[in-house]
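Quick one, tokens below. Sequence please?
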């Protein structure tokens, strides 16, 4: 169900807005899009940016490949996969979106074209949508921090590009073992711990690294037997 924060004066709306404020504003403050902006300023800007809330069940498509979009999506609950299926149904997971991350910023430029991938909820999720045109156009209210949001959007696009380059680094490795070691090593460094959890089950990890699941599972067992790592479900320890 769509939920708009604009032009509402009813008691029910005011109650919903209070819940909205307490539940989501603190999350938005930690996102790249609203970095450096105070909670009170974010609250004031939501109407300007035409924020609306949408909830999705596990397995729902938020966007489908080939769609044209005009909104930036910020995940405030749940988890999403950016994925693509080829003609024969083979799936590749491009990226994982966690709470506080966004999607759609790569399509804000004119003539960006249609979506190249699907965006799918992998658990019950809640998304806040922001109108791209309202973000890129300074409003009549002259919000003090509107220009900072535009700057943050640029930084977010740069960050996403770095993430994709990192994934290409994993996939460019020649063997399944090399791909696994590259990805797991980066995760250990990112989480600053030799024991860590990854956001994938076995099939999803195989899809992410573009390798065969059976071959990958066999390689993980060999790596364990070789003393390189230990794992239990999606929890890994590197030795």
């Amino acid at each position: 169900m769509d939920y708009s924060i604009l032009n509402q004066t009813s008691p029910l709306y005011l109650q919903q807005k209070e819940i909205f404020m307490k539940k989501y504003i603190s999350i938005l403050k930690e996102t790249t899009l609203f970095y450096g902006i105070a909670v009170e300023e974010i609250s004031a800007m939501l109407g300007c940016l035409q924020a609306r809330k949408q909830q999705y069940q596990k397995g729902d498509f938020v966007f489908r490949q080939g769609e044209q979009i005009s909104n930036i999506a910020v995940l405030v609950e749940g988890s999403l996969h950016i994925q693509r299926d080829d003609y024969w149904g083979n799936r590749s997971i491009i990226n994982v979106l966690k709470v506080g991350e966004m999607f759609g910023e790569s399509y804000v430029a004119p003539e960006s074209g249609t979506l190249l991938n699907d965006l799918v909820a992998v658990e019950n999720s809640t998304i806040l949508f922001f109108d791209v045109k309202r973000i890129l156009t300074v409003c009549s209210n002259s919000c003090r921090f509107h220009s900072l949001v535009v700057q943050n959007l640029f930084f977010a696009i740069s960050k996403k590009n770095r993430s994709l380059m990192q994934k290409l680094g994993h996939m460019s490795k020649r063997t399944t073992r090399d791909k696994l070691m590259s990805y797991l090593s980066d995760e250990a460094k990112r989480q600053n711990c030799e024991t860590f959890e990854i956001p994938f089950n076995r099939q999803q990890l195989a899809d992410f690294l573009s390798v065969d699941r059976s071959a990958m599972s066999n390689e993980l067992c060999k790596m364990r037997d070789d003393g390189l790592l230990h794992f239990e479900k999606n929890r890994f320890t590197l030795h």
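The chain is about 40% helix and 25% strand. The domain at 3-169 is CATH 2.60.120.10 (Jelly Rolls).
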